[in-house]
Amino acid sequence: MPNKPTGKGSGRRGERDLKTRVKTARKRKTSSTLWLQRQLNDPYVAKARAEGYRARSAYKLIELDEKYKLLKPGMRVVDLGAAPGGWCQVAVKAVKSDPENPTVIGIDYLEMDPVPGARLLQKDFTEDDAPEALIAALGGHKADIVLSDMAEPTTGHRPTDHLRIIALVEIAADFALDVLAPGGTFIAKVFQGGTEHEILGMLKRNFTSTFHAKPPASRSDSAETYLVARGFKGTRQD
């Protein structure tokens, strides 16, 4: 949820409020105003703008990669729920994907501007033929890492939101088991909730290491965290 506006001035002459204040427009809901104020005051938003990333979420992948060394030159990457393309931007840079022969594949039902070094598919990943389209885009190669930052629009009811995102994680994990090369990695966003034991069990059967991670760029007031599964065993264990 958006943070309550802060940064009220002390009243001393010459001091300025370091926080950006956003006035509530007549036709704007208070929740929208608070969201906008948080965006304007968010250092990751400013950093993304300065460094050319399309969204602050790019730093979630950057921080996960810095800590766990996930992305290496030459890797083949699949990014599920890729819009607006920030994770593809990070992956292209990290794996040194050639624009003439991209090794980063992104998919989303939303239209995205091109990302040099990535092949982008405009398609809903939950559609039955989406996995085949991604496999075709890989050109017969296995993927080294499957990323999923997918999330359904939130309802505000945390248990419901958690169940909806877990359903996406299940679909993404099922796909990852079909396309990952031995030793591959799967990363997916989840909400903290306690109903993911079945997914964890499945991942533990198929990967040598499975754990949760919350990068600093993931807001502290957000229930999101990331499931990281490393070392795909190469043979699917259902």
TrEMBL record:
Record keywords: Cytoplasm, Methyltransferase, rRNA processing, S-adenosyl-L-methionine, Transferase
Catalytic activity field: uridine(2552) in 23S rRNA + S-adenosyl-L-methionine = 2'-O-methyluridine(2552) in 23S rRNA + S-adenosyl-L-homocysteine + H(+)
Enzyme class of the recorded protein, top EC level: transferase
Composition bias, Basic residues: 21-30
Subcellular location: Cytoplasm
Active-site residues (renumbered): 189
SUPFAM superfamilies: S-adenosyl-L-methionine-dependent methyltransferases
InterPro entries, A to Z: RNA_methyltr_RlmE (IPR050082), RNA_MeTrfase_FtsJ_dom (IPR002877), rRNA-MeTfrase_E (IPR015507), SAM-dependent_MTases_sf (IPR029063)
EC numbers on record: 2.1.1.166
GO MF term set: rRNA (uridine-2'-O-)-methyltransferase activity
Subcellular location, principal: cytoplasm
Function: Specifically methylates the uridine in position 2552 of 23S rRNA at the 2'-O position of the ribose in the fully assembled 50S ribosomal subunit.
Protein name, UniProt field: Ribosomal RNA large subunit methyltransferase E
